[in-house]
Each structure stands twice: as C-alpha cells, then as structure tokens.
Amino acid sequence: MLKPLLITLFTATLLSACASTPTAKAEKAKTEQAIAVAEKSGMVCTREKKLGSNKPIRTCRTKEQIALERETAQREMGQRELRSPRSF
Fold first, then answer.
1. Is this structure's pTM higher than 0.85?
2. Could you tell me which of 49, 56, 72, 87 has the fewest CB atoms within 10 Å of its CB?
3. At 57, is the secondary structure helix, strand, or coil?
4. Taking a C-beta distance cutoff of 8 angstroms, is the pair 45, 32 a contact?
C-alpha cells in the first residue's frame, strides 16, 4: 500500500520539475538578449556578489557610471583616512 503511494509521489515530483524547465530556458534567453542590447549600447555588464549573498547578479553600467563610482569611493576612503586617528 505504501509503495504505490511513494512511487506516485516520486513520479509527480519528477514531472513537476521537468515542467519548469522551459520557463527557466525562456527566462535565460530573455536575460541574455537584454545583456546583448546593453553591451551594444556601450554598457559594461559584470557579475557581482552582493554583501551577504553567494548568488552573483549581473549589473550593467556605463563606463561613465563606473568611473564616477570609482572616484566617489576613492574620495570617501581618503576622507576616512583623514578622520581616523593614526597609531604608529
């Protein structure tokens, strides 16, 4: 009695997993198409891990945005060094 029930549940699980595959493939194709469009328009796309997560996400920015973020980060780090007490 228990064996047919387990077989039915196992089969249903396998079939439901297979049913979700086309959606995942369509989503991946849509993402790749958006990345191609972004790169053609002069954007740079990178895979970055957010703090507290192991899952990388794709981030697309223009070269100007990247340069501005780099300059801002360097300026903030320089200001922190000036404010922090030096211990030698």
1. no
2. 87
3. strand
4. no
Per DSSP, helices labelled H in 1-88 are: 2-19, 21-40, 63-83
In angstroms, the CA 59 to CA 39 distance is: 11
Q: Can you name the residues that pair with 48 across neighbouring β-strands?
A: 57
Residues 58 and 45 sit within 8 Å (Cβ to Cβ): yes
Q: How far apart are the first and last CA of the chain?
A: 77
User: pLDDT by residue (tens digit) across 44-62?
Assistant: 888 999 889 999 998 888 9
Quote the DSSP letter at residue 60.
E
What is the rounded CA–CA span in Å between residue 37 and residue 30?
Answer: 11
Sign of CA dihedral 73, 79, 84, 87: positive
For residues 10 and 17, the answer to whether their CB atoms sit within 8 Å is: no
| Residues in CB range of 61: below 8 A, 6 or more apart | 43, 44, 69
Q: Record the tokens describing residue 66, joined without a space.
A: 């990247």
